[in-house]
Amino acid sequence: MKRTLLLFVLFPCWLANAQSDKMKPIFNGKNLEGWTKFLQKQGATKDPQNVFKVENGELHVSGQEFGYVATTKSYQDFHLSLEFKWGEKKYPPRERDKRDAGICFNVEMLGNKIWPKSVECQIQEGDVGDLWLIDSVTAFVDGISTEPKDYAQVKKIRDGELPHGEWNRVEVISKKGKFSFLVNGILVNEGEYMSVTSGRILLQSEGAEVYYRNIKVEEYTL
């Protein structure tokens, strides 16, 4: 009950500007201008297997190797919106697991690491909207601080994911140290007092084929 009440208390201030006309594309649908690649085995420049490929106006992530694409720009106080849908292929070591990916944000430093210190909105079959706090990042959820760990998880409060093969809209709002995750317009997770409050945005490749489109951001002026 406490978690439900918190969602209703914070809901109006978080979503007042949801999907406003101030959102601007950060993926042009033609190439990865404004983004950098990193693959765990290949490093920051090589992608011989085309793990990240732009086709038909969409970002196609094969999932064949762990890695990410990250914005070259850092963001503080923003509203991110994107659409994703699952492909069919899965790869070791997760070929028998749920399809998995994620949106990491407030990434302070990129480097040769899977995964860099950040906050993650989980994109995983059945678990879209779970919170992951990576590399000792902390936040308050339900008024209680998470413990600093390599990976700390907070499950979503409700489900908004559509069936396999359909496009899902995921929104991440990060403002004044607070966060809110929406899946297809449904508020599924939120908290406050994040210990990291600015940085780059990255999209993971984590063993599953996934497509992204309509990647947009509105930056808040405080």
From TrEMBL:
**GO MF term list:** hydrolase activity
Q: Give a yes or no for keyword Signal in this entry.
A: yes
Q: Where is the 3-keto-alpha-glucoside-1,2-lyase/3-keto-2-hydroxy-glucal hydratase domain?
A: 23-217
Keyword set for this entry? Signal
InterPro entries reported for this sequence: AL/BT2_dom (IPR010496)
Among Pfam families, the record links this protein to: 3keto-disac_hyd
**Gene3D superfamilies in UniProt:** Exo-inulinase, domain 1
Entry keyword annotation includes Transmembrane: no
Where does the UniProt annotation place the signal sequence? 1-18
Protein name in the entry: DUF1080 domain-containing protein
Q: Which organism is it from?
A: Pedobacter psychroterrae
Q: Species lineage, top-down? A: Bacteria, Pseudomonadati, Bacteroidota, Sphingobacteriia, Sphingobacteriales
